[in-house]
Amino acid sequence: TPEPTPEPTPEPTPEPTPEPTPEPTPEPTPKPTPEPTPEPTPEPTPEPTLEPVVQLLSDGSFESESETHWTLFGLTIFQSNIVRSGAAALKLRRHASGAFQIVELLSGAEYRFQCMVWRNAPVIMEIQKGRTIVASGEREVSTSSFQWTERNLEFSAPGNGRFAFIVRTREADFAHVDDCAVYSINRSST
After folding, report:
1. Residues 14-51: pLDDT tens digits?
2. How far is CA 91 from the centre of its chain?
3. Would the CA dihedral through 124, 150, 72, 80 be positive or negative?
4. Is residue 170 part of a domain?
């Protein structure tokens, strides 16, 4: 007789491997952003306030070629053949010729009267109040230069009022003058 086929031994059913319980990923503890140490704001270095430079003469370059602003005397003429800038200048011919302009000034203020002179010619610059000469200057530099030379005269106004700014020659001299100006100046900044 045949032997009965043995029945296989049942293998135990494996238990499913339990999935590990996921642990939450810990959030990093945020570090507080450090507040920057405030540095004191440096005080700005004060810039010196410069007053605008105002030219006090009218038509200082003689471009109008008229006596609207300047009063000519002697044999002075407006001319256009020797000029420093623009189209006109003054020619102060012999016989104590010249020109002047009246300007209102403030007492005690400092002023500079300047003109450009061709060939370093001998020119007299004067400031008068009434018939009183407040300041005067005459310089003759080397006559070898054919360039324009700045002549200037600085003074303090002795009182409020109207002052005449005069540029002139002596009896035997002549000169070409252009670009005259009168400015208020501040001695503390120079």
Report:
1. 666 666 666 666 666 667 666 766 676 667 665 555 45
2. 32
3. positive
4. yes
